[in-house]
Amino acid sequence: MPAKPSQPVAPSGVDLDRVTLIVAGADLRAEIADRPLAYRLQRAMLDWRDIYDPNSDEPGTPGARPFDVLVCSDVWYLGNPEMTQRPTISVGGPAVNALTAHLADKTPSAFVIDDELIVQLDLDFRDLRGCCWGKDRASTETAVGAFIDRYLDQYMQATADRIDLGG
Question: How many domains does the chain have?
Answer without folding.
Answer: 1
